[in-house]
Specification:
Arginase, Chain A; alpha/beta; homohexamer; eight-stranded parallel beta sheet
């Protein structure tokens, strides 16, 4: 069904890309009180939050920088010709306002916002925020345990940090499994690498049936083969896609808090998304973009390029 | 008259300052087709344009970076307690869309936009753009020759560049005098310094009666004395205020294309605005902020701090 | 009493300043379990923490960058010839380990650490951390209400943020007054400026008797006069000195989260410390240095230069 | 024929590479009025110009930064042992002086300069400048329609921008085909990618017979195979080589105005040039290096490394 | 044999990685006068020195930045599960104090320090410093001619610079062969590329039997094959490993003085180390990290990631 | 006497300032073998050298960055109307080629070059290089002991470093006094500040009669008064002017190796030069500009602005 022209982004042929108030991909800014809200199919949402960060902070600044970079995105996919903004009503739904000094309050606010989206049948494409963001989002979306395709250099499956702290950006999916938001047998984590504290996270993954694809396996088998397995694991049921920008090699994506060298390049970073076509995606996020460590803005531009790819995958 | 609450900016106590789609000073985004447009008293407008730049480019990126930095501006003036957003209906009117490859076309677009504002009794506070921006704005505002208080390190009064090119950021006020948009006897230029090509611009100023205050005179006499003279020169008739960020020392405002060392510091940069109270300001601009040369964003933050001061002066 | 040679810093004449494991001012690293701990007179402590930050994060990285920059500090004060490291046993006591995902836990850890110092008669010179750091430090030091000389562009006297959050870097001294850690009549805040949310903080200051010196008053009266008043206000009783780097103009100290333009320059930043001589200083801190916003390291170098001045003032 | 020793560059063994007035590859600076001008075989020319840029500006600063970086280039090719400066008389011919505020005037100046080169049998190796630079150069060189091997992420084949503007960096080769400067059947564009406005440019390419190799095809087939096709397409007739630095992945070449992620790495960036040997190259350019977006200078160094490879290809 | 717990690094689960005085990999700081010195098996040593640099300086700042970045390294190798700090007593031995204005004095100081290590059976893992560092280290370690596996883009085999200067970072291995510190027939250099002054260095290599693997050969054959040859060349006798960070492509490792484009990526940079297992490594170095050209710290982080890999290889 | 038009710089009205091969102030490049060499009155010379640097390196890159920035300098002095390039034949004499790995060899090369200038009655205006540069220059110029006006934050009068090293950037004027190149009673050092190793340098100054003006005295008395004393001290005999960029506050001049906070601003940095008029200047230098620590180029632009002021003072 063709989209409503209200939802078409501004073209760079009409207004230069450096001009205008920057919304995600130059889409209209449609907050929940907006008259067009109910018509939205895909909502691009910012979650400017990093209270779960144990290392270098900054993802709270992610959504704004991603919006700025996103004005470089045009209307049509170069490889397959898709024009996603003509396929569905896409809009920038603004940011969820977090409480930077209270983790529990912030998580409650995020879950509440996404419940509103779910109630309006709006599928979210989220720009984080650190990876703890995924947990309150999943709490809103997972009416039953979801599958998940997870791109990352870390498993984010740890039990706790600093002597018992349960909610950090290293623990969201441990919590999500415990809270029955994810079906671990339908979860695959791709790109895992970097020095390890210990193997507690991997032991947990093995115990509950989460599939981990290390970076060595990823490079050895190739994208097509790994992603075929991913599609098989999640099957045709509801699936969430979580993309931590530190999946990508930090040379290509320096603006992140916990980089691990030796990752995929930017072409591979896009290619994995093109292998998501056919997955039943109920929501997706791109997290851990940290502008203070991204002086040139390159990470944000790669980030929104990935978001565009995920958007196309959600509509394929 | 108290302003309409629709026009109140979002508070940092409610939504953290790093969150949200960035408009000027977190004001509502009200384009000419918006239902509230006719109620606007002061319109903050971006002119993302630098085709008149003869030296280092970049002011086309100014409005967006200024919007970003402006989310750090709060509601109340620290010195005098003014709360400008409660005094008048202020709004972000968006950007004028320029044609970066055609100077004449861009000037026509800018003039047309500001004519709309004038027709709606909206006083503009402009974020440039290079200094040529002032010319098409003046064409819309000057139904009769205006006075002008002009802060700058350059006179921008040259006849032409590169063998006869008449429209550059070094010529706008020469043109404005020739086109009868400015009354040269009611024009004062403050802060002039830097090495000179020759004295052609100053000879013109002297010939038509424009008052030039060099930086040496500025420092020797002090702000209060110089600004008293400025107020006397423009009198109580309609006056335009043009503030080139390169008036400020480039250490405080590095993000500009043609810096000249040895200028005012940031405290002085604000103080001059506080001496504008009482001037009959029909419009004001802050120009030549060039983000590519402002890696830290400091220039943009100083720029919007100056814009806030000018806004208060427009409402005092 | 001359200091123990164990506590003399390494000279740049012997080991180049870029060499060696960086401790504060090249002093020995003496943790509480170290044999020399009991001999320490002045302890330089890092509190790498920014969970109270409502705006741009980063002070968690402050202590390390301050240590790095501090290897540029030499042995003797240029103006008065003091050689502080020969006057008292100074040492780098390391960092207090915070819990970046739990504010209350972190505050408890900080207070416990400083209680150990107090129990050993070690006066602390702290490198923050955001300004909430001062609260748990004061809880350890204030056996009775202290006086305070506070350099800052903000009062940090707000009641709460985001609908009731009591512990942020904008509230520490409101809490400290409420908890009877500070005697408000012996508190002076110097350098206050910047746009304001509202006047709630200033109203509180007035109600309890805290003296606020705005930046305009500071510049108008001059350093000597303002600091004479400061010394008179705190008298000869126990006094804390809290120095927020955003007291200094952000051009001189860009690496901070909530800059306000129009502040003192670096010469003035040092001069105020030289007017602390004679004050009975029980502890001092330098907070809000944020390395992610300090690409060149200039803020850290100014910060440690201020720490050296405060150290001399503690020993004068 | 061995080159004249006058044209040998200064060695880094004699004068350190950071020393000396920087000319391209440390060659002699030979302007048209220089006594040795007529002896020049290959002229390295700067065109510091970006008036055709619709997006982020800066290539006007390209030639100077490329000269600076080029002092890192030595005398001999590592792979094949070529010593180009001993094979032909190479010189830095200086910059063409553009008029940054007048596109037509600038194009006329550029064409005139290159006509002088052509009249003196000097083959040009150009350092841009944005991609519109290629058009006035081709006007001077193309006495008959030329073939072209074009490395880029964009086709630069658009009809017009912003409602009819015909001369931008997105249109040069559309104009060149229309003006009969290029034989479209002997043109190949390699590396095309990125989101698209629409397919108007590709439709034109198809209509006139220009061969487009997308990045997916490029990676799938490999450099040797694609370049063999390129050599076959241009044949042994006169051919121009145009190398837009945004052909390379922006992580390797961040200093450009319109980056597209997912491109070749720096090894591949050089390898494509090594497959040009045997092509009858009448001129070559390296365009779109934008120093304001290249803080580290890495793009410029890669750019001159590519220029060295193209120089060797012109002499092979 | 399990290591002594004294030598276990601080965990990021206990103390956040941004906290604490930064030693290499958060190991204890054990200088030669320390009580535990004699127990050390592997000593991590900084040599903050760049007096041999003929081009862009900066490696004197390398050790400190590498220490800072190294706090991101955790305890366990992700691929093979090794926990090196539990296998051997590893410690940060501090920096050798150089004399930045006297090359001969500095070399004497370095050799003396490493003789102490050798006398205590401590195997060194060095963080340079420029590549001349390897020469005085080899003078201490080579009681008989050593084999060497050398990763670099340059051979560093030149005879002399600037008319007869024998000690620069371009000559260490020429000297080492002349001084009989290396057995040239057991030396392999991998990754050689970049424009060349001439072939004098390669001619020397061929004459004495040093094996050079150019980058083209490296990419064509693949890591496993090249490294198998390397292991065969050095055999099971004592071998030194020298890793110049400019072996890696400068996009991945920009912080170095003499970059050459077209090198390995960060995954390959690690993989070559994983093929060192089985080599009899008597010492290793990572040199030429230059922080002034590494604004983001990415090079240092890659550098310490390589050091971790080499450490594991020394203990495999 | 009016200058020869050959020596007139290129105007920014003819060739944009970003264009052209960058020579100092766009003057002709006249090396000693050039036909016009004998006509030169004032020679601008680069000494790209930093082997005397004990701290952060980089001044070897100074001359090139200063040349680049100097294309922003125009023809006429704004305050007094002087047009120096029309008053004397000024030229860029290129760089002295140093030997970066041999201090004595470099000093010999520098002295030899300046002896050639002296033999040709060319007065040098030098762009360093670190401050050791002044010593070999003085050896060439001082046929009898010279007076010196020295702007700096350090005295550079130390005896030796690192256990007896006599030639560093902290010792040149100790050596110059010992070698009878300077008459200490005609030497004044202005701006001295920063923490001190000890008072050995100041004791020497006092012993031989060198006048030291600390920064406190400088600010207290004001520029006019201090400079009147400076002129009186040097009298009308031959005088050298040495300007270390670290005289200026590091916020205004960050690109230097040994910054000291609390110095003059950029206006004051220029004003001191304007008080040199009437001094009999036989040569001048601007040293310690270190581009690797000057990401924005601001220090270089201030540096060349100071060089322009010194040039005018040499011709006044």
């Amino acid at each position: 069904m063709p989209s409503d022209s209200f939802f078409h982004p501004v073209s760079g042929f009409d207004l230069p890309r450096f001009a205008g108030v920057p919304t995600f991909m130059r889409l209209p800014h449609v907050t929940p009180d907006h008259a067009q809200f109910a018509k939205v199919d895909i909502g691009l949402v910012g979650v400017p939050w990093d209270s779960g960060t144990t290392n270098r902070p900054g993802p709270r600044h992610g959504p704004r920088q991603l919006r700025d970079a996103s004005t470089m995105i045009r209307a049509q996919h170069a490889t397959n010709g898709m024009r996603p903004f003509e396929t569905a009503n896409c809009a920038d739904l603004g940011d969820v306002g977090p409480n930077p000094a209270d983790i529990q309050d912030s998580m409650a606010r995020i879950t509440a916002f996404y419940q509103t989206l779910k109630a309006n049948n709006i599928r979210p494409l989220t720009a984080g925020g650190d990876h703890l963001t995924s947990l309150p989002v999943l709490r809103a979306l997972a009416t039953q345990p979801l599958g998940m395709i997870h791109f990352d250099s870390h498993t984010d499956l740890f039990h706790s940090y600093f002597g018992g702290t349960m909610y950090t950006h290293g623990t969201p999916f441990r919590r999500a499994v415990e809270e029955n938001l994810l079906d671990p047998k339908r979860v695959i984590q791709i790109g895992i690498r970097g020095t390890m504290y210990d193997s507690e996270d991997r032991d947990f993954a093995e115990a509950v049936g989460i599939r981990i694809v290390t970076i060595e396996e990823f490079f050895a088998r190739g994208i097509k083969d790994v992603m075929a397995e991913a599609r098989e694991i999640v099957g045709d049921q509801d699936t969430y896609v979580s993309y931590d920008i530190d999946f990508v090699d930090p040379t290509f994506a320096p603006g992140t808090g916990t980089p691990e060298v030796g990752g995929p390049n930017s072409f591979q970073a896009l290619q994995v998304c093109r292998e998501l076509y056919g997955v039943n995606i109920v929501g997706a996020d791109l997290v851990e973009v940290s502008p203070p460590f991204d002086a040139s803005g390159a990470t944000a531009f790669l980030g929104v390029s990935i978001m565009f790819e995920m958007l196309c995958a959600m509509l394929a």
